[in-house]
Amino acid sequence: MIFGFFRRAESRRRLIAGLHMRIDRAAREPGLFRALSVPDTVEGRFEAVCLHVYLVLRCLRSLPLPAPDVAQDLVNAVFAQFDASLRELGVGDVGVPKRMKKLGAAFYGRANGYDAALDAGNRTDLALALGRNVLGDTDGHRAGPLAEYVIAADSALSKQSLDDILAVGPLFPPADRITTPSGAGA
Fold this sequence. Notes:
The chain is an all-alpha fold and 186 residues long. The chain has one domain (2-170). It is 69% helix and 0% strand. The chain is globular. This is Ubiquinol-cytochrome c chaperone domain-containing protein. Belongs to the CBP3 family. Belongs to the UPF0174 family. Residues 35-170 form the Ubiquinol-cytochrome c chaperone domain.
């Protein structure tokens, strides 16, 4: 199914646009802001989008071809959205490239930090990174539930195929049902 879709550019754009839309929808779930304390601000929404895009890209890295192409197309679509958003916020043509460079560095810096913590299975480091980047919480104490959400999302995504992700997913856990397990410090 997937290879047929990628033969035509328009089909490919529609698939990526649908995936991007579903990621944006997940990043706007009210539970993220109410239950997991993500700030309902421009910066908080940026962080929520980055986090969800990161989780999907992490999943795509482990999937067979054409997942790398999907990942690259998704990154291109997301950064095109960031560019358009900056322009909507009134950033001029001269300032957009500099801001985009900063956004790219922020995105990949966060991804590297989240990867290191998830790969090591270290909830504390994940909570610290999420607290610092998403919540503005330097000691990570408030980020425990958000870390549990990320761990649950990473686990759920790891069970999805590329066909599933493009057709109906990515499927993220309900943010308002996340609980911090006892003894899981953050």
